[in-house]
User: Fold this.
Amino acid sequence: MTHPRSVPGLAGPSAVLMAVLSLAAVPVSAAEPRSGAEVYELVCTTCHETGDKGSPKRGDVKAWKPLIAEGQGSLSRTAIKGIRGMPAKGGRPDLTDLEVRRAVAYMANAAGAKWAEPKK
Ligand code: HEC
Assistant:
């Protein structure tokens, strides 16, 4: 006879893990940062796929040229902080800085940059 609370793996931490996984909506472990493409599909696509609200559209080489020229570090900081119609982290404060920086690299690369996806 085992009390349900004593079953290993069903305590608090696994409930937290389930919550994080359902938020992520992608089958990755909670500890694994999302890739730039994943973050883009999850968050940035809302505005940047169509150029909504005057955002630079994904793959629009002309619109991204001056942004890419700002450099990866500078442009990533802008995306984390937000600028004018661009909300901080695309309006998703639960994203890590690393995930936002990866999404920036993903979008820049879609418009011709050759930025490495940040690792840490
Ligand atoms: C709610 C709409 C919206 C979402 C969601 C959004 N953006 Fe933006 N983004 C904008 C708008 C609008 C601009 C143009 C801001 C301006 O320059 O006035 C912009 C501009 C940018 C820029 C250029 C900043 C600059 O220096 O002008 C980057 C980089 C960027 N977004 C990255 C991202 C990333 C990465 C995500 C996803 C994590 C994201 N955006 C999600 C609306 C959005």
User: Anything to note?
Assistant: The first helix runs from residue 12 to 24. The CA atoms of residues 80 and 93 lie 9 Å apart.
